[in-house]
Amino acid sequence: MGKTDDVDLMLILNPHGWGTCLFFIESKITIVDLTLTFGNPFIDLIQSLENIINNQNETEFYWFGEPGGNRIRINKIINQQNKVNVSIEEFDEEFGEKIEDYETKVSFEIKTKHLLILFYNQLKKTEMLMKDTEYASKRKNDFPFDEFKKFETNYTEYINRKC
User: Fold this and answer.
1) Residue 60's CB: how many other CB atoms inside 10 A?
2) Which of 42, 86, 95, 138 is 20 to 30 A distant from 18 in Cα terms?
């Protein structure tokens, strides 16, 4: 996939240690499943988003499944500083094994601000849902409230500067 503004996503914190991220790109859906067994993929995402806000040229994080997983790479486009290229690359190795091979599931360009807005709003949605006792009871300790609050402050400052 190439240049597009036809991108959306949905990040879901499923019950009992699982999550799903759906990427909607030019009317095609890419599904990424993630487990919270080996760490917190929401923290990994937040750290990469912070890297973008802090003007790093590239960042990546891993969302593991059972088995295998995905590497999500975000690279600033050098001749278009307001855009990034996002690549979602699948691998078969289990957690702890050396990853030998990646297969690109999808790659797309998006304005940096748009990517941040999409992920922020999905994280905010989850934070708000976690205030519901019944919802939260099946997702105990799965959402990183402290890390999200720090990110939210930095995100708000960044978006206000860019608007």
Assistant:
1) 14
2) 86
pTM of the shown model: 0.93
Please enumerate in sequence order all residues whose Cβ is within 8 A of that of 40, keeping only pairs 6 or more positions apart, or say none.
Answer: 142, 144
Residue of higher predicted confidence among 2 and 41:
41
Whether the bond into 15 is cis, omega within 30 of 0: no
Residues 6+ apart with CB under 8 A from 78: 57
> Residue 72's closest CA among 97, 52, 98?
52
pLDDT tens readout for residues 20-40: 999 999 989 999 999 998 889
Cα(7)–Cα(80) distance, integer angstroms: 18
Give per-residue burial for 16-46: e unless 16+ CB within 10 Å, then b.
Answer: ebbbebebebeeeebebbbbbebebbbbbbb
List the Cα angle 93/98/100 in 5-degree steps: 70
Element (H, E) at 149: helix 145-162
Give, for 97, the enclosing helix (H) or strand (E): none
